[in-house]
Amino acid sequence: MTAVPAPARPDLVDARYARWDGVGAPFTVVPAAVPRVPGPGEALVEIDLATVCGSDLHTVAGHRPSPAPGVLGHEQVGRVVAVGPGAPPRCVDGAPVGPGARIVWSVAASCGTCPRCRRDMPQKCLELRKYGHEPLDEAAPLTGGFATHCVVLPGTAIVTVPDDVPDVVAGPASCATATVAAVLAAAGPIEAGARALVSGAGMLGVTAVAMLAQAGAHVLAVDPDGARREQARRFGAAEVAPGGAGVTDVDVAVELSGAAVAVGSCLDALAVGGVAVLAGSVSPGPAVPLDPERLVRGLHRVVGVHNYRPADLQAAVDFLAAHHRTYPFAELVAGRYRLDELDEAVASARRGPAPRQAVVPGA
Predict the structure, then answer these.
(1) Which of 71, 81, 210, 244 pairs as cysteine with 265 (C-beta 3.0–4.6 A)?
(2) How far apart (Å, rounded) are the C-alpha atoms in residues 111 and 219?
(3) Where's the Alcohol dehydrogenase-like N-terminal domain (predicted)?
(4) Which DSSP string do the residues of 180-214 spell out, in sequence order?
(5) Over 80: is that where the pLDDT of 152 sits?
(6) Is the pTM value of this prediction over 0.70?
(7) Which residues contact 54 (CB under 8 A, 6 or more apart)?
């Protein structure tokens, strides 16, 4: 990784970002002098910590299309430096956002007025802009988490983070934790004693285990990796298994691995009135058989979830604030890489065993 020095400008903030130039190219740290006061409705945030998400790894490896050059990263926590003129941005709970606030923000900015937004699908907005997934605009480059600063746009869900929640716990809230909160919202109310199947015990999976266990469910976590299965126990799984074949009579099945065989197992496992929520299938794969008679007679529901609504981000932060001491969320993030060590952070994330690697852009 190479770095390019930037001259100081007293009327600007001297920021830096890691430019991704495409598959096989190293990251390059680039200076960016940005106005100290952002535009109307915007917030300039100094990033304290970002994490390397699985989708970042897929992008870097070429398994997921993404504009290049660009600024990756969409799981981060930081403090507001300044807000733009006019009415300040507001948090999901309605509180105004001001300098000094410690926040996380959603993976996307939505227009709020298109047909999809009006149908309560802001994550599928027709004018959607996604942090960490936009083509580089050198005039306004701070659009991802792998930077010292980010400009948070109007239409972005913002949630304040209590100071006692560590950065390594708060950072993944804006992708992993909020996605799981959306999954459980789609499942509907969880009754105490409900049988729940969680397929895939990576970061999303163990988060789902913890949320379901905290709601009073009896959770079976399945994953082919033994270390992941044991970690799922620490997050509240009552049972673990290498796979879901043969599992029956579950009220809620959550699929987070994306494996076709796991999707099939979730569908086969449902009890009468059960619901399967599929969130892991984010890449093309083989079709999965569906028995329509069993679905009809069993009063089953099958729901797809991709990204999340603003309320899910609030639910994610609330859960972490209440339970990060109960479950070992801090152990899911390892490392402490500088921005000019991002290539090493990505390599470490590929090796594991922690689901996330931390990048501290200001270090």
Answers:
(1) 244
(2) 38
(3) 39-163
(4) HHHHHHHH----TT-EEEEE--SHHHHHHHHHHHH
(5) yes
(6) yes
(7) 202, 203, 355
